Amino acid sequence: MAIASALFNIIVFPGFLFLCLMGLIFEYVDRIIHARLQNRQGPPFFQPLADFIKLTAKEEIIPDEADKKVFKFMPILALTAAATAFFYIPLWSVNSLYSFTGDVIVVLYLLTIPTVTFFLGGWSSTSMYAAIGAVRTLTQLFSYEVLLFLGILSPMVLADTWSLTDSAIYYNSHPALMLVNLAGFFISLIALLGKLEKVPFDIAEAETEIVGGSFTEYSGRLLALFRMAIDVEMIVGASLIAAVFLPFGLMLNPVVAFALYIVKVCFIVFLLSVFRTIFARLRIDQMVKACWKYFAPIAFAQILLVLIVKGVFL
Amino acid sequence: MIRPGKMLREVLKSLFKKPATISYPAKETFTPDRFRGRLKFETEKCIGCKICMRDCPANAIFIEKVGEKFEATVYLERCIFCAQCVDSCPKKALHATKNFELAQLDKRRLKVKI
Amino acid sequence: MGIVKIPIGPQHPALKEPESFLISLDGERIQEVGMRLGYNHRGIEKAAEGRTYTTAIYLLERVCGICSQAHSTAFIQAIEEVAAVDIPKRAKYIRSLIGELERIHSHLLWLGVAGHEIGFDTLLMYSWRDREIVMDLLAMLSGNRVHYGMNVLGGVKRDIDKQKQEEILKAVDILEERTKYYIKVATEETTLIKRLSGVGYISKEDVYRLGTVGPTGRASGMPRDTRKDDPYAAYDEVDFNVITDNHCDVYGRTLVRVGELMETYKIIRQLIKNMPDGDIAAKFPRKVPVGEATSRYEAPRGEDVHYVKGNGTDMPERVKLRAPTLANLQSVAKMLENNNLADVPITIAAIDPCFSCTDRMIKTVNLGNGSTNMFQWETLRKQGIDWYRREKGVDFAELNKKYADLRKVD
Q1: Which of A186, A162, A153 has the alpha carbon at shortest distance from A303?
Q2: How far are the Cα atoms of A78, A90, A245, B35, C28 from residue A239, in angstroms, in the given order?
Q3: Do residue C198 and residue C322 come from a single domain?
Q4: How many structural domains comprise chain C?
Q5: Residue C83 placed within a domain
Q6: How many Å apart are CA A161 and CA A9, to the nearest integer?
Q7: Chains that contact A by 3+ CB pairs under 8 Å?
Q8: Cβ proximity of C83 and C289 under 8 Å
Q9: Minimum Cα–Cα distance from A127: chain C residue
């Protein structure tokens, strides 16, 4: 009985299928906001599902010199790693599906795996566009990873715990302390833009420079899985930020908490879309400079503020 | 003042405006009065001088005598819709209509009598 | 990773038209650029020799979609000079008016394309939405959004009455507001300035040495504009400034083009205010006398040169074009020195390339033994037919018989 219920939780709700459905719905939300901000009409609501089905129906073409096993395995690894991270995040109650001390580190580690799969997938394609895109992905990783870690971990330091569940309980009993983490919220959003490879940080998949980046040689079902992995990563990243920085209302009635969760994810996706619309793409050297010169000091200031507040007031 | 995100205000205002997209073919699109589309031929006015055939840049119009009158055939796949024949005709027997939805799947259907 | 050779083109999302740039990279730095042209060659100069002047105008207009009025007017001006016919003043004003409207639409198109190349899709959507105002205006005046067909030997074909002039002035007012907004965005948006500054640098001496024309050269301080140096049509009666800039990079080219847009609105208002009454076309002989003439025109991309030689019949003897992009392409290799791979699309887009205008056959060089050759029309045609029969098994004689009823046999 416990096994059946666990399997149901993992595969259907709030597990894999629910996550994929949410990924498709929020991809639609992102695209329609992006379109309306540009004064355009935008796609119909079934467009992401139609794209997924169409891609699975197309032929897969694998380059002759590519490493076939690595090439085929990378999309599956990306999707499973991003989906596994979802089980440790408190969504609409203070308890996540499986929580333990230190699960925030596991979530951050699991979110790094898709980036490494983009690199390996591009590198094993042996096409020069993909190789350049793969190298750029790793260079980007070295810039935003520190920001993401510092941003997500400073509220944890304030709450004196490494478990997302305990941190949610702590902030629900001291709601005023959420305002201390405002700078961290901003830094985490920027780092999430870098991880999801959206403008201004979509350097690894710059369409006008290197055709498709790491995804140049992917087609058919493998590309469909990669795109699904990116959508799932967006939901996981948005849920993580919502759980760490906006954990209010988690102790209420489950239905109200579920609605509140949807509103929080919509808000974060809206902010990501607005950032996507108003900036141009940066060059890789400009991005590294900007991340280390301007954003890293803000992240360090956030940690310093957290330590001061903890030492002086608590 | 140089700052990032200069277009933010304009972009947020566009959220509340009507989209600038015209959902053609569900809605009509703007076709002006002087638009040069498919040709229309008035066989009573034609005198068979064939100046239109000579001045056509694409060899798309073909006048032949059938009985007492003249008939015009247009190869729609060659016509560039420049309306030079409309201007050259001394008797004003040719006119340009506003019809531009002329796509066909079979090339033989594009040779039309007008 | 060592030295990697990346092909940008002939097919690439960054290029709107096919051209081949072979770039050697070391990491992200460019070491060397190799260019090959000729993918868009259509044989227009030869095709114009077998057509009468009336039909050749339509052919020359279709050399390029965006600067069609430029090529058409330059060609007609050369013929009118050979035949020594004076065209009425109102026709000159209407020709300049359509030329300036075309300049607006071309520069707004360039602004959108530049935004797309640096990943700023919002600028693309907004500037192309405003470009629709000009396209609808041109469709109302001439019947078509591109390839207007307004010019005829001796003047223009269609008149612009008072009501249409009111529409033009209203549209120009709206466009001026929007252009001021784009100037603000271009000078104040951080990511845009970061991407465009310092990229594609070419100094003033190199501009004169390599023969760069148009806004590309004017952004390095070269004050040459054919409308001022060698006035044609109605430009000797209009007052405007030539916009130059000293940045010498892509940012300077952006500023020059939006500055030219503001000057264009000034010119259009003067043209409409001072438009004289009268005929719109003069009588033109069917047969053009013997003679030759060269005419220059300031297309949106630079100086466009046409040469026409008449031989007493109603078909031209020789037509030669020099499109502005051919003069600007030489400087692309110089501009790309010491830049990154990410700068290649925006540098190529900054000269506003129109490769359809560019490709002309000059001379073929045999890479094996270095001998050169110039082909005759008949030899080239026969070579093509033989190649297809040998390599692909296509027999054109059979196909001609099969589709004989679709071809008009003259």
Answers
A1: A153
A2: 18, 8, 10, 55, 36
A3: yes
A4: 3
A5: yes
A6: 26
A7: B, C
A8: yes
A9: C6
* DSSP secondary structure letters along C267-305: HHHHHHHTPPPS-SB----SS--SEEEEEEEEETTEEEE
ipTM, two decimals, is 0.90
Q: Search chain A and give the residue with CA nearest C189.
A: A279
> Distance between CA atoms of C336 and C21, rounded to whole angstroms?
11
- Residues A164 and A169: their CA atoms lie apart, in Å, by 9
Closest CA to C92 of C141, C169, C137, C155: C155
DSSP C10: S
Q: Measured between alpha carbons, how far is B52 from B60 in angstroms, rounded to an integer? A: 10
pLDDT along chain C (410 residues), means of 10: 82 85 86 85 86 90 89 92 91 93 93 90 92 92 88 90 92 93 89 88 90 91 89 89 90 93 94 91 88 92 91 89 87 87 88 82 64 72 83 79 63
Region label for C259, one of left (φ > 0), alpha (ψ between -120 and 50) or beta (otherwise): alpha
Calculate how close chain A gets to B41, using CA atoms only, in Å: 41
State which residue of chain B sits closest to A36, comparing Cα positions: B15
Asked if the C-beta of B57 comes within 8 angstroms of chain C's C-beta atoms, the answer is yes
pLDDT tens for each residue of C137-178: 999 999 888 888 889 998 998 899 999 999 999 999 999 999
What is the four-CA torsion angle of C194, C198, C200, C205, rounded to 10 degrees? Answer: 160
Instruction: Give all chains having 3 or more CB-to-CB distances under 8 Å with chain B.
Output: A, C
Q: Which chain A residue's Cα is nearest to B9?
A: A278
Range of the domain at A50: 2-313
Residue C407 lies in a domain: no
Q: Are C201 and C256 found together in one domain?
A: yes
DSSP string, C393-405: ---HHHHHHHTTT
- Contact residues on chain A for C120, CB-CB shorter than 8 A: 199, 279-281
Closest CA to C218 of C303, C137, C276: C303
**C332 shares its domain with C392:** no
Write out the two tokens for A83. 């989906």
pLDDT tens for chain A, 314 residues long, are 788 888 888 888 778 899 999 999 999 999 999 999 999 998 999 999 999 999 999 999 998 888 889 999 999 999 999 999 998 888 888 788 888 888 889 999 999 999 999 999 999 988 888 888 899 999 999 888 989 999 998 888 888 888 888 888 888 888 888 888 889 999 999 999 999 988 888 888 877 788 888 898 999 999 999 999 999 999 999 999 999 998 887 888 888 999 999 999 999 999 999 999 988 888 888 889 989 999 999 999 999 999 998 888 76
CATH level 3 topology of B30-113: Alpha-Beta Plaits (3.30.70)
Residue A77: both structure tokens together: 């690894």
Q: For residue C104, is it within any domain?
A: yes
Round to whole Å and give the CA distance between A19 and C131: 42
User: C250 and C373: one domain?
Assistant: no
Complete DSSP assignment for chain B: --BS-TTHHHHHHGGGSPPS---TTTS-----TT---SEEE-TTT-----HHHHH-TT--EEEEEETTEEEEEEETTT-----HHHHH-TT--EEE-S------SSGGGGEEE-
For residue C381, give its domain range: 367-402
Residue A256 burial (C-beta neighbours within 10 Å; 0-12, 13-18, 19+): exposed
Expressed in angstroms, the distance from the first to the final Cα of chain B is: 63
Question: Is the link from the previous residue into C7 a cis peptide, with omega within 30 of 0?
Answer: no
Question: Rg of chain A over CA atoms, in angstroms?
Answer: 20
Closest by Cα among A95, A111, A114 to A152: A111
Domain shared by C32 and C156, yes or no: no
CA distance A280 to chain B (A): 9
Q: Domain total for chain A?
A: 1
Is C269 in contact with C165 (CB distance < 8 Å)?
no
CB contacts of A37 in chain B (<8 Å) are 11-12, 14-15
As a whole number of angstroms, the distance between CA C111 and CA A280 comes to 14
